[in-house]
Structures are given as structure tokens and as C-alpha cells.
Design brief:
It contains four helices and eight strands, in the order E-E-H-E-E-H-H-E-E-E-E-H. By secondary structure, it is α+β, with helices and mostly antiparallel strands. It has one domain: Beta-Lactamase (2-Layer Sandwich). Helix 1 packs antiparallel against helix 4.
Length: 175
């Protein structure tokens, strides 16, 4: 399950009163939005685009969704995300995308939200063997910054909703 310090968790009680921990993916909340962004980016630059949360692939454009969606990201991508820097592969090289697939990303940009790493935007090599230029690197950086900003806005809205719900419950109880 790879739970790291600081990872958001949802806590439930199961049918036999056991405590159940489930990893929560903040960027997963924006998976439909991330998919649309990946599709537009793929059409614009001509390279397959994959967006992941901290652990799994949540959006795919230009490659088989069935083959890649929900696959665990490689430890190589996890390391790149933790370094919080854009990684660009040398020509002919690449960063392993998923543990059980032989596909490589040539650009990896971590998604940062409120100072925390929440995922990554990956540009893959295309089938013609064309290597991305600086413009594709910038495009991936803009995508990561935009998705990070969307996460911050989502978190603010969620926080406001949680506070309002809390005050509503207090009011109902006469507090």
C-alpha cells in the first residue's frame, strides 16, 4: 500500500467493527479534469501524455487507457516527484512509467499543490521516435502548475464546505 508520512488517509469502520484505512488521492478528485487536460495536451503537442497521482496513473491520452489507467507508477517516477524538479531524459533514454510496463516517459514534471507533491505530468516518446523539444517541456510544466493550482482551489472549497458543515452540525445540536 506504500503509506508515507503525511499521506492523506480516509478512516472507516468495517462491518466487523474493524478500522479500515484507505489512501486518499487529492488529485484523483480531479481525474476527469486531468483526463481532459491530457487529451488536449496530447492533441496539441503530438506526444502521448499521462497524469498520475502519487501512486497510480489517473489519466491517459495518446495510449491505451485500458492498458495504463490505474497502473502503479514506477519507483523511478516516485523518486523524480520527491525531488520536485522537472526531469527530461536524454535522447534514446527514458524513465520507466509503470512497474509492469515497458513504456518510458521522456518528460516528468511533479504537480505541487500547497507545497506538497500530489502527482506528476508525463510526456511519453511518440511512435515516430521524435524527441520532445523545449516547447513540450514548457507545456508539461504549465500543465503541472495548472493542475496544482486547481488542487489548491479544490482544497479551499472543500475546507470551506467542511467548516460550514461543522457549524451546521453544531447549530443542530444547540452548540
Amino acid at each position: 500500500m506504500r503509506i508515507r508520512e503525511g499521506d492523506p488517509l480516509e478512516i472507516f469502520t468495517g462491518p466487523n467493527e474493524e478500522v479500515v484505512f484507505k489512501k486518499y488521492s487529492p488529485i484523483g478528485e480531479l481525474s476527469q479534469f486531468a483526463l481532459q487536460y491530457a487529451e488536449v495536451m496530447c492533441r496539441s503537442c503530438g506526444f502521448p501524455v499521462v497524469i498520475g497521482d502519487r501512486d497510480h496513473i489517473i489519466a491517459v491520452a495518446g495510449e491505451s487507457k485500458k492498458e495504463y489507467l490505474e497502473r502503479r507508477l514506477s519507483t523511478v517516477l516516485e523518486k523524480i516527484m520527491n525531488e520536485r524538479k522537472t526531469a527530461v531524459a536524454e535522447r534514446g533514454e527514458g524513465f520507466l512509467l509503470a512497474e509492469d510496463k515497458d513504456k518510458h516517459a521522456v518528460i516528468v514534471v511533479p504537480i505541487l499543490s500547497s507545497g506538497d507533491v500530489t502527482g506528476c505530468v508525463c510526456v511519453l516518446a511518440n511512435e515516430q521516435g521524435v524527441f520532445p523539444k523545449e516547447s513540450e517541456v514548457k507545456l508539461a510544466q504549465v500543465a503541472a502548475a495548472f493542475l496544482g493550482k486547481q488542487m489548491e482551489e479544490y482544497e479551499k472549497a472543500f475546507d470551506r464546505y467542511a467548516v460550514e458543515s461543522f457549524y451546521y452540525l453544531l447549530k443542530q445540536r444547540g452548540g
